[in-house]
Amino acid sequence: MTRDTGWFKSSRSSGGSNGCVELRFTDDVVRVRDSKNPHGPTFDFRPDAWAAFLARVGR
Length: 59
Description:
The protein has about 60 residues and is an alpha+beta fold. The chain is built from 1 helix and 4 strands. It has one domain. A 4-stranded antiparallel β-sheet has the order 1-2-3-4.
């Protein structure tokens, strides 16, 4: 069985902000998209690259 969380709003996104993003985690990729444009492009990260990004920005 593979992991797929489906799209969900980032806990760092706020209701009154224009900077909302959604995330989707699978076994192979972490996807990020603009919540206002769900059919638009996504940024795709390998899980190790995502972990390095979070470590760098300080969750």
